[in-house]
């Protein structure tokens, strides 16, 4: 791992370019439809790739271990997050639960960028980590919503509750990730190979343009983030570090090699800004979107892209037995 | 052509909550509606721009034309949600032909 | 500034038929119009969502402001088409400055 | 629910000039606005279609609801620009709940 | 031809993924602009490729034969379709004519998917079939509109008629297909070669994502299809089978080899959902779009993708002399 | 340089296809979001490529010379353009200044197409020309606005003036070009290489589809161009020829080799239709967009694509010492 080299990778530089453009109030912007299209492409591509790698490597007990750790993390991590957001952050129960749901879920793009960085550093995570990613998208959201319900949040009850569960589990990004993972698993190898110039060859280039857009979005959201206090912003830095380090530690204890342990740390440390916000807006309309989007998108996401990924990778190498 | 006066209801609503507004409209017997896109806005709770990545920040304009009774029923149903959902509700008069449709 | 009352015409129309509505408007002497996009809707003939592949299912909102006489002429021309074209036609009052433009 | 009458302001404006219209609105104390997309139109200065490449030819619909006094102040401010900016300004009545918001 | 292998090709699996996502009411969706962009890409790519292949193979009498058979099919097939839709389907004359127009025209994506399947099975159709595809897009629509006019349908007369002919022949997809075919025909080989990473390398990958969207669209339309009776849905299965088998038979009798005969069957059996609906909505506003879009998009298209293509291919091999 | 071969290159043929489709009033159209996405891609790609080439070739005095000539051209060319538009064109001062700003700035797509043509002809311009392109986007616009101010144009004064300068220099296309140029300059070579299948492999193919759209846009604008008189249209042909020849001459005198001199001529002869119109609409709302967009997009752009590029290239070869 070499921090400077990571920072100079085109993927990160395009992210910084987007952030700079937003801060100098340039009118640079990427059409929403293109951004959505690129995010669908990235999800289909990593799903396919992960499925293909698992098909090649075969199932192993390690996969179950990684899945178990991932599941555990996404069920548990919202709890300390909720407590910290209430106590230190001074948020009301609904807002705290909404934010906790985001930190319990994961960010696909942070994961993808992390995989790029880890691969470039010669420690690529295992292919099944994509399945773990898909597995970790929803449980944390459900836990967050349960925290809100317990807190007397109005929305989650009875018929509505089942509708929400539905929305959570059949969320578009989950469907696409799981679906392309399965396709990568079952489709004949040579037929898959013919889709590779698209799904594999273009991957890094598309990621560059997508991160350019994320830089614009994150920095603009940072500017519009009036609801965020310094304490909340501080938590948006503390939570990823805490969760990421816990994730790497658990993964290492469970016996994963450093690349995959780092990837699990990146997942644990990341906060969702695609799957979670839509579900939370629906489930907890009283929660302030400025808060949870501000935290996950304007603070945690850039932090992870620029520092978190390197931090968790270094730590994974350091504690590897 | 003879025209008849009806009520035009417009509701600016976050994309993830639009389905709820539609359900409330159907529940009071409103027969038709149209959703229109928006790009950007500002209000008491700050500034937003369209966001199709998660959809959480996108807003839609719900438009429906109906008779006064159903409009009132809809307003009564939706008013308690205006603040928590962050909705903007507008009502105005409009003339239509084919009165039975609306 | 002094404002003058005019009629606001709105027609919800399928994209392939929008040109026809525009032609009818120009034919009665209406000087300007604006087309706006829509996303989704429901009515007597079921539910639709925007479709740009063929355009057959996309709908546009035609908006025009004009004086009462031309608005009446337009409504008379377009009314026979409302059912077969599946149009929704809305009329309302609006105040403008620069009366001669509208 | 009790509703209160307010003024609905709509301004069709070229995308590069939209920020100016918003600034004028904020300057007279208007608290909220929404921008909506448009696709195509025709008027005294010819025909246009949406153009996102440069944005120079795109037009947006600025929508704001406010009280009569602020609406008047806005109209006075913006009227001198109508011709040089090529704006279309529409005013109408609208009923809202939560009067204090508008 | 191996049915199971075809079903497991990524292209088909992505289509099924889209359909499943729509049936479980997931919010997965591809922006309209991206879908349109992909369909333009696919048309330009097959046009270029077909033109290039014809330029390489040279003109031959076979091309004229294939074109003749294609033209004949698209002029004739609307007639039995119209009769069946009237008698068995119980549709009024305008609706029957509108639907017949769709079955007289062709589906570009069904053709493209068929070419992929045939090529994978080692029986690639000739390059000039793209020209036949372009040739078959419009005549069937015109015949359908004439059937409606004869039926007293209001729209097609005089000045409007000529405007409609214009819309039909200068339809965007026809222009793009013909235009890129000609470009592929005349452009220098080495200059064309430099566009291949885009137009050829990405083809299958883009087709995967496009069929994901088509799966979503077809299944959602199936759910919204209230106008369709069981008899009409049955016809939407019968017509492609009938037309496809007729197409393969005629093509084989005319002397085309099995790959091209299968491709002609796929064209004949397919129903348009890009060129035809827009023209028909304009020409026959009284016809119910729920019917013709429901038949062509929600029933015939999925049937052809999953079964029809394999069926016509097997039949073409079977009756080959 | 072979004129016929240039005309038959797919890039130019797709442009002609678009123009033909618009003239026969086909409904062929490319979604706005896709067009914008492609233009962002093209700018990022040439920025990266230019930066990479400069990183490989190293800085040289030649770069400063080319930059100096480019800057000089974009500061000077608006002046004769303004005079001609006033005298021969009969435009009022504001309109003349608005149009002059467009001719002082440059067209990225004309440049990109020119680079393709020059490279195919075996005389590729130097990589640093991308930096010169970025440098030439804004000064001409500023000079145009100053001409309008001197002319008593209402808009450019005080606080507004500084805001306009900001809009001009942080214009999205300038940011993206400069940003990706810098990324190409500083990013490690092997990391950049992994983005090449996207940024380099697809370049010509994307350019084909983009020029298809530009053909549609230019021809449709030509049809809508009611404000343009014959004299103005004539100037829209004269100005690119004049500016282009001046550009090539100066560049050759300054010692650039023919490829780069031709590229500088193409830049000088081109008129902006992405950066300039947005800024001018803001700065000079009284100027008629029908005029400046009509001139630059409907006349000068097609002229340059079809004739200008070849003309400046031939001239550059001819006067080369
Ligand atoms: N009452 C209404 N209010 C708003 N939009 C309507 C209304 N009725 C119909 N529409 C729109 O018009 C379309 C066609 O209506 P219909 O012909 O009743 O199916 C619907 O799909 C809606 O988008
Ligand atoms: N009467 C009208 N009704 C609706 N929109 C109009 C009207 N007049 C003008 N517009 C819109 O405003 C734009 C500019 O108008 P003009 O300045 O008259 O060319 C037109 O292109 C239309 O989009
Ligand atoms: N007076 C207004 N006129 C038009 N749109 C408004 C107005 N107030 C609020 N909005 C819209 O409603 C959104 C939410 O409003 P608010 O809850 O006040 O932040 C704003 O971001 C605007 O898009
Ligand atoms: Na997490
Ligand atoms: Na057919
Ligand atoms: Na120039």
Break the fold down into its secondary structure elements and pairings.
The complex is a heterohexamer, with three copies of chain A (321 residues) and three copies of chain B (102 residues).
Chain A: H1 3-7, H2 10-23, H3 32-57, H4 61-76, H5 78-87, H6 93-104, H7 108-120, H8 129-137, H9 139-150, H10 158-169, H11 172-186, H12 189-193, H13 196-199, H14 203-224, H15 230-253, H16 258-269, H17 275-283, H18 289-319
Chain B: E1 4-14, H1 15-27, E2 33-37, E3 40-43, E4 46-49, E5 59-66, H2 68-78, H3 81-85, E6 88-96
Antiparallel strand pairs in B: 1-5, 1-6, 2-5, 3-4
Bound molecules: adenosine monophosphate (3 copies) and sodium ion (NA) (3 copies).
One adenosine monophosphate (AMP) sits between chains B (12, 41-45, 48, 86, 88) and D (31-34, 63-66, 102).
GO molecular function (chains B, C, D): enzyme regulator activity
InterPro entries (chains B, C, D): N-reg_PII, N-reg_PII-like_a/b, N-reg_PII/ATP_PRibTrfase_C
Pfam family, one (chains B, C, D): P-II
Tally of alpha and pi helices of chain B:
3
- The coarse overall form of chain B would be elongated
CATH topology of chain B: Alpha-Beta Plaits
Q: Summarize model confidence as the mean pLDDT of chain B.
A: 93
Overall number of domains of chain A = 1
Order of helices and strands of chain B: EHEEEEHHE
* Rg of chain B (CA only): 14 Å
Low-confidence stretches of chain B: none
Query: What is the percentage of strand-forming residues of chain B?
Result: 35-45%
Q: What is the number of beta strands of chain B?
A: 6
C-alpha termini separation of chain A: 17 Å
- Largest beta-sheet details of chain A: none
Bound chemical compounds: adenosine monophosphate, sodium ion
């Amino acid at each position: 791992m070499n921090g400077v080299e990571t920072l100079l990778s085109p993927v990160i530089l395009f992210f910084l370019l987007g952030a700079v453009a937003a801060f100098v109030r340039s009118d640079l912007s990427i059409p929403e439809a293109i951004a959505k299209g690129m995010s669908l492409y990235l999800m289909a591509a990593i799903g396919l790739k992960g499925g293909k790698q698992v098909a090649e490597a075969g199932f192993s007990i390690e996969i179950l271990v990684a899945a178990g750790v991932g599941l555990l993390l996404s069920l548990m991590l919202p709890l300390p997050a909720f407590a910290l957001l209430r106590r230190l952050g001074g948020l009301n129960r609904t807002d705290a639960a909404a934010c906790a749901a985001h930190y319990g879920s994961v960010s696909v793009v942070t994961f993808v960028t992390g995989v790029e960085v880890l691969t470039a550093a010669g420690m690529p995570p295992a292919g099944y980590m994509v399945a773990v990613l898909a597995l970790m998208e929803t449980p944390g959201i459900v836990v967050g919503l349960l925290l809100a319900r317990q807190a007397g949040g109005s929305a989650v009850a009875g018929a509505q509750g089942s509708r929400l569960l539905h929305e959570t589990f059949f969320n578009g990004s989950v469907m696409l990730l799981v679906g392309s993972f399965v396709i990568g698993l079952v489709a004949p190898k040579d037929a898959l190979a013919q889709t590779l110039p698209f799904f594999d060859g273009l991957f890094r280039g598309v990621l560059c343009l997508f991160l350019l857009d994320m830089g614009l979005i994150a920095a603009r959201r940072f500017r519009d983030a009036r609801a965020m206090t310094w304490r909340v912003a501080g938590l948006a830095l503390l939570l990823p570090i805490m969760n990421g380090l816990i994730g790497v530690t658990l993964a290492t204890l469970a016996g994963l090699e450093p690349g995959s342990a780092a990837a699990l740390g990146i997942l644990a440390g990341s906060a969702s800004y695609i799957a979670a916000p839509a579900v939370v807006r629906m489930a907890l309309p009283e929660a302030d979107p400025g808060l949870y989007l501000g935290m996950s998108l304007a603070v945690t996401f850039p932090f992870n892209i620029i520092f978190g990924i390197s931090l968790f990778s270094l730590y994974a190498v350091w504690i590897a037995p | 052509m003879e025209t008849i006066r009806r009520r035009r209801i417009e509701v600016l609503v976050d994309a993830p909550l639009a389905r709820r507004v539609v359900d409330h409209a159907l529940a009071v017997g409103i027969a038709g509606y149209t959703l229109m896109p928006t790009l950007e806005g500002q209000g008491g709770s700050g500034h937003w721009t369209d966001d199709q990545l998660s959809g959480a920040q996108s807003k839609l304009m719900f438009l429906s034309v109906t008779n006064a009774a159903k409009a009132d029923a809809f307003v009564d149903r939706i008013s308690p949600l205006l603040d928590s959902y962050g909705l903007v509700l507008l009502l105005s008069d409009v003339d239509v032909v084919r009165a039975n449709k609306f």
